[in-house]
Every structure is written in C-alpha cells, then in structure tokens.
Amino acid sequence: MRAILLMEVSIMSATLYRKGYEHAHELVERGQVVRDQRDDWSEHQPSTEDENDFIRRHSMDEYGKWHLGIDPNEPADTKAHWKFPYGDFKKVHRCAVISAESRAGQYKHLDIEKAAKELLELIDAEVPSASR
C-alpha cells in the first residue's frame, strides 16, 4: 500500500483594516512620508524589538493602526493579527506601501491592494511640506 503525503498549504487570509488605511492617509496628507525606493523596506522596517517596544509604550490598537490589513483568523491581541505594515511608527514609507500592494496582489487581497495603490498615488502626487 502506498502512503500519500498531504501537505497543508496555509494561505493568508486578510481583509482591509479601515483604521490603518485612514491613519496612513492622514499621515501622507500631513507630509509624514519617507519617499524611499522600492526595495528599501527590508532595511527600513521596524525590528521585532522596535515593534515590541512600541506595543509596550502604546498599545496593540496603536500598533494595528500601522497596518493595512488584519487576519481575522488570528487573535486581535497578537502581532499575527496585523498584516501589511506601511511605516516605522513615525512616518509612512513609500517602499512599505509598494511592498503591501505587491503582496496583497499576490495573495488576491484586492481591497488591500487597492488601498495600497491609492496611498502610493497620493504619496507620489504630494509635494513635500518643506518645498511648499
């Protein structure tokens, strides 16, 4: 008898987190943006230590505002609940928004992909406050 090995494939489930999108939108409108390059996010993203420190000083809800998506299958009081980060807890990073748009498209999270695209368009259209 031949054994059949089944592999469990985990496909991330995520939906748009409206509060996170609105927070990002407000930050961009206030000029709190880093206009970095596409591949900079791996160097610019907060470390695990930075994330944990932010949560300790603020709250998990405040941490969540820095994400465009949530995974409804994960508890809301865990970092695993929050998906598609877009900044460093101070500013929106263009590279993070590009990464979010790309990953959301890859996993067919169309609402998150659309929100990231809208943010990217706003970032690219905005004139930095310092040059006004």
The total count of helices amounts to: 6
What is the overall shape? globular
The percentage of residues in β strands lies in 5-15%
For the sheet with most strands, the description reads:
3 strands, antiparallel
Strand arrangement across the biggest beta sheet: 1-3-4
Enumerate the spans where pLDDT stays under 50 for 5 or more consecutive residues. 1-10
H/E series, N to C?
EHEHHHEEEHH
What is the mean predicted local confidence, pLDDT?
Answer: 90
- Overall number of strands: 5
State the share of residues found in helices, binned by percent.
Answer: 40-55%
Question: Can you give a write-up of this model?
Answer:
Helices cover 45% and strands 11% of the residues. With 132 residues, it is mainly α. It starts with 14 loop residues before the first strand and ends in a 7-residue tail after the last helix. It contains 6 helices and 5 strands; from the N terminus they run βαβαααβββαα. The strands form 2 sheets. A 3-stranded antiparallel sheet has the order 1-3-4. Helix 1 packs parallel to helix 6 (110-125) and helix 5 (94-106) runs antiparallel to helix 6 (110-125). Mean pLDDT is 90; it is low at 1-10. The protein has one domain (15-131).
